[in-house]
Every structure is written in structure tokens, then in C-alpha cells.
Design goal:
- Among the domains are: 30 residues, no CATH class; 112 residues, Band 7 domain (Tetrahydropterin Synthase, Chain A, 2-Layer Sandwich), CATH 3.30.479.30.
- The chain has nine helices and eleven strands.
- Strands 6, 7, 8 and 9 form a four-stranded antiparallel beta sheet that branches.
- A hairpin with a 5-residue loop joins strand 7 and strand 8.
- It is rod-shaped.
- The termini are far apart.
- One of its GO terms (molecular function) is peptidase activity.
- One of its GO terms (biological process) is proteolysis.
Length: 361
């Protein structure tokens, strides 16, 4: 007991013996005594736990600790030896730092740790954002000089997959950073050969295709194990310092384009109207030509028929022509009938009376 005197004397401060306390009193027991009705003693609980542990652990308590530690180490080793590869991943096992030939497919795998380790690589489509809005390492990232000496802030993304996990892990020290630098360099090269207007809205697709081809060729030369899926330009804007002036130039260019379109529209309208008028005049001229030609042909045919009849009966034809001519000359003139014997004969203008009657009615 902690307060008992092993030599039969008092406590450490001279207390009485016989299991007395340090001030001459007996040890304080839990209320209810140590009988069946009271709670168990703490020392009894500890003692019983030690006995049970000796029975469970082979070799006793001292040897059981070693066995327990050994079991824990074995479980830890097994936990380190087993790894899982997800469906969108591939694993590359290393033996003493050298990669094995086979690639671990998705599923549960086992390797001898620590002699062997594993590197997990994601092989599905990944996106690398490049530009001032997506990278905080450099404030000038994305700033490029176009072919017409304009400064542009180009933000774009590179979509890629890992085609060779082993090459991706061991041929390039930092594949993600290398890809970013190569893509940024390729975009600067392509934008530097073109005017700023191409990057803004006119020819983005050719720029994206050319940059993707350059990046793929460079990564293939590095044997980085990366396959470029696409390059997309997210946004193109001038730097904040010159944004107002650049927008003013853009507005002027838009006004120019608008005025040119309006002029072209007006020219097309006038040209269409002139072409319509010209076509109408040509049709009228053709109709007049046909009418005059037909009239001339009709007069010629009538003259030919008259000449034919005149050749057959000259007197009759001459008289008929005289009468027809006089009819044409005198039909609109005032008429006075003179008889050789009676002189002037009264003439009743029936035609004029009929016209007056119609007008009066």
C-alpha cells in the first residue's frame, strides 16, 4: 500500500503502523467499505486487468508487449504494401528507385514496401490555365506583343492527357510547369506574327490550332508523355494601363466599319435601282424596236399588195386610192355639198348632232 510502513513503523512523517495513515489514522476507504456492497478497489481493478493481459498475450506481460509491437509493425507494413489505383489513374511501381516496365491498371495492387514504392498519375483530361487571371506567380503572365505592336493580355487554357505515365514522371522534372512555359512561349510566338484584331475576334481558331501543334511538337521532343487535346483562348484584353485608349481605338474602328457597311448598303441600293432602270429602258427600247419594225413590215406588205392590185387594174386602183385619200383628208373637216344643177345643197351633220346629244345626255 502507498501509505503502509514496510518496516513495521509509522508512515513517512512518523505516523502509527498497522496500516495507519501518515497522521496516525487508518487509510481512507471508499464509503460502503470493501465488502460486497461497496464499489471495487482501484488497485483490484488494475490487478485483474494485468492478469487478463497475461492470459491473452503469450509469454506473459513482458513478452506480450514485444509480440504486440510486432503485430502492429506487420499491420503497418501490410498497409504500406497495398495500394489502390482509381479508374482515372495509373500506377508506376519503383524498385529501389527504378521504374518497372508494367503499368498498374485500376484496382487493388500489392508491392514490397519499402524496397518498392508506387507513383500514381491521373490520366484523364486535365486543364492548364495560363494568363494573368489564373496564375499569381508573375504579374506579366499573359502579356504579349502582337504583330502590329499592340500589347495584349491573353488568357487561355490547355487541355491535355497523360499518354505515357512513366515518361510523364521521369523524363521531365516538373511536367505541369514545363507545359505552362511551353504553351505560353508558343502563344507569344503565334500572336507575335499576327495583328491584334485576329486575337480579339477574327481568327482565334487558327491561332488555337497553331499553338496546339507547336506545344504538342515540343512536348514530344521532350518525351514528356503528354497528349494535347485542345487550346482555347478564354479572353483577350488590353492591359489596364492602356485600356481606355485601346477601347477608344476599338470604338473608332467599329464606327469605321459601320460607316463602310452603310456606304456599301447605299451603293448596293443605288446600283440595284440603276440596274432596274437600265433593264426597264432596254425592255422599252426593244419593244419600240419591235413595234416600228412590225409597222414597217406591215406597210411594206400593204404597199406590195396595192402594187400587185395596181398592176392588174390601174384605173380601178387609182380611183380607190384617190377616194381613200380624200376620205382620210376630209373626214375631220367641215363639209359643204355643191350640186352642179342646184348649187349648194343643205347638209345635215348627223354625226355632230349625235355627239352633241351624247354630251347633253
Amino acid at each position: 500500500m502507498p501509505w503502509s510502513n514496510q518496516n513495521g513503523g509509522g508512515g513517512p512523517w512518523g505516523g502509527g503502523g498497522n496500516n495507519q495513515g501518515p497522521w496516525g489514522q487508518g487509510p481512507n476507504r471508499p464509503r460502503g467499505g470493501g465488502g460486497k456492497g461497496g464499489p471495487p478497489d482501484l488497485e483490484d481493478i488494475i490487478r485483474r486487468g494485468q492478469d487478463q493481459l497475461r492470459n491473452i498475450v503469450p509469454g506473459g506481460f513482458n513478452g506480450g508487449v514485444v509480440a504486440l509491437v510486432g503485430m502492429i509493425l506487420v499491420v503497418f507494413w501490410l498497409f504500406q504494401c497495398i495500394y489502390i489505383v482509381q479508374p482515372d489513374e495509373r500506377g508506376v511501381e519503383l524498385r529501389f528507385g527504378n521504374p518497372k516496365e508494367e503499368i498498374s491498371a485500376p484496382g487493388l495492387h500489392f508491392h514490397l514496401w519499402p524496397m518498392e514504392t508506387v507513383e500514381i498519375v491521373k490520366v484523364t483530361m486535365q486543364q492548364q490555365n495560363i494568363g494573368a487571371a489564373s496564375t499569381s506567380s508573375s504579374s506579366s503572365s499573359g502579356l504579349m506583343l502582337s504583330g502590329d505592336q499592340n500589347i495584349l493580355n491573353v488568357q487561355f487554357s490547355v487541355f491535355f492527357t497523360v499518354s505515357d505515365p512513366k515518361a510523364y514522371l521521369f523524363n521531365v522534372e516538373n511536367p505541369a510547369e514545363t507545359l505552362q512555359q511551353v504553351a505560353e512561349s508558343a502563344m507569344r510566338e503565334v500572336v507575335g506574327r499576327r495583328p491584334a484584331q485576329d486575337a480579339f475576334r477574327d481568327n482565334r481558331q487558327p491561332i488555337e490550332t497553331e499553338v496546339a501543334n507547336i506545344v504538342q511538337g515540343t512536348m514530344d521532343r521532350y518525351r514528356a508523355g503528354i497528349s494535347i487535346g485542345a487550346v482555347t483562348i478564354q479572353d483577350v484584353a488590353p492591359p489596364r494601363e492602356v485600356a481606355d485608349a485601346f477601347e477608344e481605338v476599338q470604338r473608332a474602328d467599329q464606327d469605321k466599319q459601320r460607316l463602310v457597311e452603310e456606304a456599301n448598303q447605299y451603293a448596293n441600293q443605288k446600283l440595284g435601282q440603276a440596274r432596274g432602270d437600265a433593264a426597264q429602258i432596254r425592255e422599252a427600247a426593244a419593244a419600240y424596236k419591235n413595234r416600228v419594225v412590225k409597222e414597217a413590215e406591215g406597210e411594206a406588205q400593204r404597199f406590195a399588195s396595192i402594187h400587185e392590185q395596181y398592176a392588174k387594174a390601174p384605173d380601178v386602183t387609182r380611183t380607190r386610192l384617190f377616194l381613200e385619200t380624200m376620205e382620210q383628208v376630209l373626214k375631220n373637216s367641215k363639209k359643204v355639198v355643191i350640186d352642179e344643177k342646184q348649187g349648194v345643197v343643205p347638209y345635215l351633220p348627223l354625226n355632230e348632232i349625235g355627239k352633241q346629244a351624247q354630251q347633253g345626255g
